[in-house]
Design goal:
With about 280 residues, this protein is of the alpha/beta class. The chain has one domain: HAD superfamily/HAD-like (Rossmann fold, 3-Layer(aba) Sandwich), CATH 3.40.50.1000. It has 10 helices and 8 strands. Helix 2 runs parallel beside helix 10 and helix 4 packs across helix 6. It is globular, with a radius of gyration of 18 Å.
Length: about 280
């Protein structure tokens, strides 16, 4: 693994907040359509920011609307069935705390959420890396398993060209146990969702690799995304990701975390889910 420690901190708070596109104008060759020479694919949670933004957004909402903490009580009976329901099923249960909120309300709240956390809560080193990728002329893509509700404004604030997140069904407002449209944006499904911005005929199953590309993630769940890149970097990687990354000599980033050990991180996440976290 090749640690990267040569990035000087730059102020990225002035990044244009213009809204990125979730799909390319020319699906045959998105990079060429925007005059770019390659791709930079970024995960979000624990890659650009040291937290799971699903918990961080929950913390933000409950502090604004404490009564919504009661909706999380409904999560408890489902905890023993986590393996059966899977990540997508548990996400539907967890998102009940947003029940009744409409798109206009959520758009405003998501913008305020980003305003509160950018740039201080993010890994400054990784924001510098993102800026470097832009300077290299690469098409920047943010792909996260978190809901598009706040992935969109985060992508806009960070200046990404495209974003992809988990799409939550919203018919007028968020329903109880909202459906996930197109599946959880995780693992191989990330490649399915970003197909429209990949070169025409690009086939990951055939071993195709994006030219002049670099992928960034903390999790082995993103191996399908990292494997289609010429280069890859790990950010405080999971054990499985570290094993493959070590063999392939992938870059390693270890920006300073707000917690020192796993137990502290777990406690902080629990507090975020209850709306009582303080940094």
């Amino acid at each position: 693994m090749k640690p990267h420690t040569d990035c000087a901190h730059q102020d990225t708070s002035a990044t244009s907040p213009s809204t990125p596109s979730p799909s390319a104008a020319d699906p045959c060759d998105a990079a060429a359509a925007l005059g770019r020479s390659g791709y930079a694919l970024f995960d979000l949670d624990q890659t650009l920011i040291p937290w799971d933004t699903q918990l961080l957004f929950c913390d933000f909402i409950i502090k604004r609307m404490p009564i919504r903490r009661l909706f999380l009580v409904g999560l408890v009976p489902f905890l023993p069935f986590t393996k059966v329901l899977g990540a997508e099923g548990m996400k539907r249960v967890f998102l009940n705390y947003l029940w009744g909120l409409n798109k206009e309300q959520l758009d405003v709240l998501a913008e305020e959420f980003v305003e509160q956390h950018f740039p201080d809560t993010f890994y400054h080193e990784m924001l510098d890396v993102l800026e470097q990728q832009k300077k290299l002329g690469r098409l920047t893509v943010l792909s996260s398993a978190s809901p598009e509700i706040w992935v969109r404004p985060i992508a806009a604030r960070l200046g990404f060209d495209h974003y992809f997140g988990t799409e939550v069904e919203m018919v007028g407002h968020v329903r109880l146990f909202p459906d996930i449209i197109g599946g959880n944006n995780k693992g191989a499904n990330k490649l399915v969702k970003m197909k429209s911005i990949l070169p025409e005929g690009f086939d990951p199953e055939a071993g195709d690799v994006l030219p002049d590309s670099h992928g960034f993630s903390d999790s082995h769940a993103d191996l399908p995304m990292l494997r289609i890149c010429e280069e890859a970097s790990m950010v405080h990687p999971t054990e499985k990701l570290s094993l493959e990354g070590t063999v392939k000599n992938w870059h390693l980033y270890q920006p300073k975390r707000p917690t020192k050990e796993k137990f502290q991180f777990a406690i902080a996440c629990l507090k975020q889910s209850l709306g009582i976290y303080t940094s």
